[in-house]
Amino acid sequence: MTIHSTLARRGGVGALAATLLLGSGLVTAGPALAAPAECTTIGGAMQVTADCLDQTYATPVIDSETDESAPTPHHRIRGHFEGTNIQFTIYLHAQEDKARWEGRFFQYTYPVVFTAGQDTSQADDRAIGFALSSGGYAVQAGNKSLSLGYRHAAAAAKFAETVAAKYYGSDRPIAGYLYGPSGGSFQTVGAAENTSGVWNGFVPMVQAVPQPTSYNFLGRSAAELILGGKAAQIRSALLPGGSGDPYATLDEAEQAMLKEVHALGIPWKGWEFPDYLLGRSEQYPNGLDSSDPLWYDPTYVDDFWNAEGYLGTETSPLGERVRAELTKAGDTVANRWNIANRFYYRYQIPAASEGWIGLDQFRNPDGTPLYPQRPVTAPGFSGAVSGNAAFDGSVNGKVIAVSNLYDADALPWHTDWYRQRVEASLGDAAADTYRVYFNDHADHQDAPVSGERAKHLVNWYGMAEQALRDVAAWAEEGVKPPASTNYNVQDAQIVVPGNAAARRGIQPTVDLTTHGKETATVHAGKQVTLEAKAQVPTGAGKIVKTEWDLDGDGVYTEAPLSRIGNAITFQATATFDQPGTYLVAVRVSSERDGDPTARFALAQNLDRVQVVVTAAD
User: Fold this and answer.
1) Are the C-beta atoms of residues 320 and 311 closer than 8 Å to each other?
2) Cα separation of 548 and 274, whole Å?
3) Of 50, 78, 318, 592, which one's alpha carbon is 20 to 30 angstroms from that of 353?
């Protein structure tokens, strides 16, 4: 990837930073630099520019420099900001590979660690390899606990530029790109709205937004209470070859709950993995529910179970079921809180003008709330995580949002919610500033995709990597990336066309059938013919790999391609020795330049058919 930047070089990090670098041999003495002005703060968010000084991170210190061989040869610099718990790492090309640098950097951000030993100041092997292979060095800043907002990332980016300029022996402009998933998308948007001249572009991934009451998690917790016993039937109805009617086996209370939870925007596709959707998987070891009293609303539990208008007193099938669940669990204070907490989203409805369409089901025709509203607002966490971003869409730089249609954590339609704010803020300029790419068969979790998840999900990080390369070409050369994914919002669900040309975006589509259908019934030992057609959206590349999972266990075997192209058809045959129901899958990968040896920026998708195998005659 070769991109020649035309942007003016941004300012350095000040005299103190240059002095600290002297000891490393990366900067030589020169004229004294004028002290930069301090960064200003507006509405609680610091406005970081290329030339201002954030006093909190005014003293960067280099702790070590090493030449590393893994995951690929590179020169690594570790350091910290004096007086803080923030560390940073810079990953530069190895001495022999300096010519591969093309004047840019890529920077991953995430606010919190989840496991012992994790350190958000160090990039993982994939982030390092991707950056170095994409003409950039990598930067990352954080710590072993909590690193909120974007200010530490901005300080690390600015300091790293000074380091890189000396290391590469270049005065060329340096362009930078910030990206992060989920909580990292809060930080990425915070930076996009409140910095200028630090980064040129941004890729918020599985985009989170400051939603009211965390209703997507509460709605899933409510579904776990009411629908947990019917999860398998709902999943079966929605699988390839299923009935297509997830309500068929549900009673009135369960039907009401299922309708409500998906009107919130929780994706239908999430039922493919109901344990995750309902908070019963290893990602949610403590579940999604809580028996803790709400410290900010201590009278809520009494109102829920005793006051008119609340579900605990409602004369309806769902209200009766809720009371029955309390009786079943035992009428204790803890259980009263546990059940009441799950439905708190009904009683904290923001104004209709704020655009939370998933909550419109709880309004009267005139827009007023159907149910009593609590006098206090549930505290949110987006302010601290994002650096007090307004989420008003006032982005500075090119932005490509990458979100996924199976995501039950960062709901797909929330990406559209923010897109509307960008378009309102930027007007006509949004068309040349903002893109949204939705990925099918992808959820909130990143790689590796294995086990149960691999049966129906692909690794979506390759699509995010391609978005980063696209945003770089857009910012540096004005090369417009592929059009946004074409989608509609129906009942807070994102709906995309099935055909790649109509869907657009960057993800390939693949259609798998057996004799033109999505299901087949055969005797054991009889051969089944599988036909697949894969397509890539215009300008998004070519299919370079096909893989088959013929027994539905999530383990794929690569099948040689007869040709590489933007639209291909191919076949396979399968024979099943044992009776049973098999979900046979095919997975395809596309690459922008049609390179079958590429390691990064592969766009994947899959499709499946159901094969019912009966006993042999």
Assistant:
1) no
2) 24
3) 318
* CA 533 to chain CA mean position, Å: 28
Does residue 224 contact residue 325 with C-beta atoms inside 8 Å? no
From 327, 362, 397, give the residue that closes a domain. Answer: 362
CA distances from 67 to 31, 75, 76, 142 (A): 31, 5, 6, 22
Residue 100 is given by DSSP the state G
In angstroms, the Cα distances linking 314 to 226, 319, 345 are 16, 5, 16
What's 145-163 look like in SS3?
CECCCCHHHHHHHHHHHHH
Q: In what order do the strands lie in the sheet with 40-42?
A: 40-42, 45-49, 195-196
With beta carbons less than 8 A apart as the criterion, state whether 164 and 137 touch: yes
In degrees, rounded to 5, the angle at the alpha carbon of residue 383 between the alpha carbons of residues 148 and 88 is 15
Instruction: Let me know whether 347 and 236 are in one domain.
Output: yes
Residue 491 lies in a domain: no
CA dihedral 407, 123, 10, 204 (to 10 degrees): 0
| Residue 482 forms part of a structural domain | no
Specify which residues 495 forms β-bridges with.
488
CATH code, domain with 558: 2.60.40.650
Q: What is the rounded distance in angstroms from the CA atom of residue 586 to the CA atom of residue 56?
A: 51
Cβ neighbors of 109 (< 8 A, separation 6 or more) are 120, 140, 141, 142, 150, 153, 178, 179, 180, 184, 187, 188, 191
Q: Say whether both 302 and 422 belong to one domain.
A: no
The pair of structure tokens assigned to 444 is 């909130």
- Mutual angle of helices 15-22 and 151-168, in 10-degree steps: 50
Residue 382 lies in a domain: no
Question: Rounded mean pLDDT of 11-29?
Answer: 37
Q: How far is 594 from 587, CA to CA, in rounded Å?
A: 16
Residue 56, phi then psi, degrees to nearest 5: -60, -35
pLDDT tens across 562-573, in order? 999 999 999 999
Amino acid at 502: A
Is 272 contained in some domain?
yes
Is residue 584 helix, strand or coil? strand
Residues 6+ apart with CB under 8 A from 328: none
| CA distances, 517 to each of 131, 423, 458, 532 (Å) | 43, 41, 23, 11
Is the distance from CB of 320 to CB of 253 less than 8 angstroms?
yes
Question: 127 lies in which domain range?
Answer: 15-210+387-476
Mean pLDDT of 18-29: 37
| Contact (CB, 8 A) for 157 and 109 | no
Say if residues 80 and 63 touch (Cβ distance below 8 Å).
yes
Contact, 614 vs 526, CB < 8 A?
A: no
User: Does residue 86 sit in the same domain as residue 152?
Assistant: yes
* Distance separating alpha carbons of residues 291 and 335, to the nearest angstrom: 6
Give, in degrees to the nearest 5, the angle at Cα 298 between 292 and 302. 95
Full 3-state SS string of 170-210? CCCCCEEEEEEEEHHHHHHHHHHHHEECCCCEEEEEEECCC
**Per-residue tokens: 211:** 């939603």
Radius of gyration, alpha carbons of the chain: 26
Q: With 0-12 CB in 10 A as exposed, 13-18 as middle and 19+ as buried, what is 451? A: exposed
CA dihedral 74, 79, 81, 86 (to 10 degrees): 80
pLDDT digits 0-9 by tens, 88-145: 999 999 999 999 999 999 999 999 998 888 999 999 999 999 999 999 999 999 999 9
Q: Which tokens go with 487?
A: 């989608």
Q: Global pTM?
A: 0.94
